[in-house]
């Protein structure tokens, strides 16, 4: 009998993915999470990344960022209200602090506003 590992591999993989998302200042996709996760757990597979993403979504630890025409990205749950910037060149999505605020005047009469999402497009500093 070999010594038990200090942490089961499943837990290490879950922790690695969660920490990658929590440490990032922008939403990440499964391929990026795989690259970061493999620094901790070199045997990690893309299927494992997807399985853990789904588990973390169910736990409410992370949320999905869905931009039109883009595969979903993931970020920590509980971030304060913010918006996103999509770089047309490298395809990365960045968090933008702040909000233009009062959008109610845009509504047709009789409509009620329950939320909004704003995505800006352009070139990030690396690509400009
Ligand atoms: Zn870029
Ligand atoms: Zn806003």
Write the layout of secondary structure elements.
Elements: H1 9-23, H2 30-40, H3 46-59, E1 62-65, E2 73-76, E3 83-87, E4 93-96, E5 119-122
Parallel strand pairs: 3-5
Antiparallel strand pairs: 1-2, 3-4
Bound molecules: zinc ion (2 copies).
Could you explain the architecture of this structure?
With 128 residues, the chain is of the alpha+beta class. It folds into two domains: 1-78, Winged helix-like DNA-binding domain superfamily/Winged helix DNA-binding domain (Arc Repressor Mutant, subunit A, Orthogonal Bundle), CATH 1.10.10; 80-128, Dna Ligase, domain 1. Helices cover 31% and strands 16% of the residues. It contains three helices and five strands, in the order αααβββββ. The protein has helices at 9-23, 30-40, 46-59, and strands at 62-65, 73-76, 83-87, 93-96, 119-122. The protein has a three-stranded mixed β-sheet, with no helix packed on it. Strands 1-2 form a two-stranded antiparallel sheet. α1 (9-23) packs across α2 (30-40), α1 (9-23) crosses α3 (46-59) and α2 crosses α3. It is elongated and about 70 Å long. The model has no long low-confidence stretch (mean pLDDT 92). The site of one zinc ion has 5 residues, from loops.
- Could you tell me which ligands this complex binds, including any ions or cofactors? zinc ion
State the separation between the terminal residues, measured CA to CA. 57 Å
Q: Tell me the CATH superfamily of the largest domain.
A: Winged helix-like DNA-binding domain superfamily/Winged helix DNA-binding domain
At CATH's second level, what is the architecture of the largest domain?
Orthogonal Bundle
Q: What is the typical, i.e. mean, pLDDT?
A: 92
Assign the structural class, choosing from mainly alpha, mainly beta, alpha/beta, alpha+beta, or little secondary structure.
Answer: alpha+beta
Number of strands: 5
What is the string of helix and strand elements?
Answer: HHHEEEEE
Shape: elongated
Quaternary organization: single chain
Q: Tell me the helix content.
A: 25-40%
What fraction strand? 15-25%
């Amino acid at each position: 009998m070999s010594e038990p590992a200090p942490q089961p591999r499943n837990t290490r993989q879950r922790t690695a993915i969660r920490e990658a998302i929590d440490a990032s200042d922008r939403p990440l996709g499964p391929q990026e999470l795989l690259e970061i996760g493999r620094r901790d757990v070199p045997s990690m597979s893309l299927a494992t990344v997807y399985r853990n993403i789904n588990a973390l979504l169910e736990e409410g630890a992370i949320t999905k960022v869905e931009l039109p025409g883009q595969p979903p990205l993931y970020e920590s749950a509980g971030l304060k209200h913010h918006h996103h910037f999509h770089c047309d060149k490298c395809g990365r999505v960045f968090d933008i602090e702040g909000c233009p605020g009062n959008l109610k005047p845009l509504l047709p009469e009789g409509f009620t506003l329950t939320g909004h999402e704003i995505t800006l497009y352009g070139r990030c500093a690396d690509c400009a």
